[in-house]
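Entry type: protein chain
Record version: 2
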Amino acid sequence: MSVKFYLEPYSHIPAHVQISDRIKLALLTGQLRPGDTLPSIRDVEKELGLSRNIVRRAYLELEEYGILKLKHGKGVIVHNDLSYPSDLSLAKRSQRLCQETLAKASAAGIVASSLARMLYQMALEQERLHQRFYYVDTTEPLAQDRAAQISQAWQISIIGLATHQVPSLEAVAADVNLKLFTSYYRYGEVSAQAARLNAEVIPVALKFNEAMIEEIQHIPDGSVVEIVLDEHDFASYGGLILNNYQRGFAHKDVLFKVIAFTSINDLKKRLKSGECHTMIISNKLWDDMPADFKRLKGVRRPKMDFDARASEQARWRAGIVI
């Protein structure tokens, strides 16, 4: 299928965002599907009378979030691995609500686009007063960083919390149906913490970022890489975490192992003896590691970012339509 682009030159919405939102809407309504081809950057540039940089920015942002795939010489396609739910009831309800609102605005003599701006501002105010979305992880800085990534990708406000802070939401949960996002690693732990809350826990996907990929790429072939976890994570998630590294770096000839943390001295001895070339200390342990140990050659921490493409099901489940 193809999508027709429109541009409102006097809108307060930047041109690249209008293009991006048009593609998201086409996906929502079924005009576009995974594998479909989009007009090239040059074609959209000519169609809308925009500079190439504006169109390219829209396409590159959607590629960064895993929605589009730009292939040199082969055009632009909707990512084949984009996961959209087979049950489109949310999309249909959203469309019906929009159509009803537009009809009522017209009947009342109200310009629909101006009503949409008013509705948007009122929605933002309501969401600020009644915060519903939180991302939960092992530490507050880590949670805040990933909350910011999801907020940018989904254009909603998400607050980051450490796992131990979840019970503090009990007073908020009495009035608001909370949505707690977390990684698949932490899903069971966060669900247990949220058991007393009026909250839905929704797992989202993470991926190794470019810095992490670069670090692993420079490890010599045949080396041993040890992933150090605390005792709880080693017992509960060790196999899952090991499998994630093995799949993520299947192209690399290194041996990944998962070990439980014992002591700093033991870790230093393992590095010094050459038992392992690189030691990846879990984020849960990292902040408590001595500064001199963190500076040792071969000591790393996991570097993972929010994976928007693999989290489409989570977005829909949370009621975020575009």
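Comment: The chain has a mean pLDDT of 91.
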